[in-house]
Design brief:
Number of strands: 21
Distance between the termini: 86 Å
Largest sheet: 7 strands, mixed
Number of helices: 3
Order of helices and strands: HHHEEEEEEEEEEEEEEEEEEEEE
CATH topology of the largest domain: UDP N-Acetylglucosamine Acyltransferase, domain 1
Oligomer: single chain
CATH superfamily of the largest domain: Hexapeptide repeat proteins
Structural class: alpha/beta
Shape: globular
Length: 215
């Protein structure tokens, strides 16, 4: 028979405390059952997540839903049109002090792939019918580089980014400040775009350069 000393007995008795393995097993099994039940609880649906974002100030069009893993620092700065598809782990980051919005705007029928990041201080406008592949980054600001000033103390320089209609941006491409991408343009995967792109042009490379015109 197993014996477990009480705390008082342990202080007055030199015999060691005997572990009660059956009781530990009961506690362990209870914890495992509890975790299994928690795992079965319904998670917030996309509709619920979208409703929460709207309550917090985001403008979300009909037929567009927000995955549970979406991150957004200032929901009132976000406006997304109707019938858009947003994959998980997208980050909408308005990287500035509180101001009236929206500063991050998407049109209708836009696809945003997994893990995209929109890091905006000034303004981002994306038109209708655009495809933004996984891992794309759009950043409308950078640090200064003056000598004699610490990097962490440099001023941020911001210029708006504008993506027109029917644009396709390939996986892991980066769009930098001040860039305008014209209607029907294509940006190849892993490109870094630091200059504006004309309508129906195809660009690729680091830094990106035009390689041809569509059609």
């Amino acid at each position: 028979m197993l014996h477990v000393n009480t705390p008082r007995q342990s202080l007055t008795n030199s015999s060691p405390i005997v572990d009660n393995e059956p009781e530990r097993n009961v506690v362990r099994e209870f914890g495992q059952r509890l975790m299994r039940r928690i795992a079965l609880l319904p998670r917030p649906t996309n509709a619920v997540r979208s409703a929460i974002m709207r309550i917090r100030g985001a403008s979300i069009g009909h037929g567009t839903s927000i995955p549970a893993s979406t991150m957004c620092t200032w929901p009132h700065q976000l406006a997304i049109g109707k019938e858009c598809i947003i994959q998980p782990d997208v980050f909408f980051n308005y990287d500035h002090y509180w101001t009236p919005g929206p500063s991050i705007q998407f049109g209708n029928h836009v696809f945003i792939g997994r893990g995209c990041e929109f890091n905006i201080r000034c303004q981002l406008n994306v038109g209708d019918d655009c495809l933004i592949a996984s891992g794309v980054k759009m950043i409308d600001h950078d640090h200064g580089s003056d000598l004699g000033c610490l990097m962490r103390q440099q001023e941020n320089n911001s210029k708006p980014i504008s993506i027109k209609d029917n644009v396709w941006i390939g996986v892991n491409a980066t769009i930098l400040k001040g860039v305008t991408i014209g209607d029907g343009a294509i940006v190849a995967a892993a490109s870094v775009v630091n200059r504006s792109i004309g309508p129906n042009e195809v660009w690729a490379g680091v830094p990106a350069r035009m390689i041809r015109k569509r059609g």
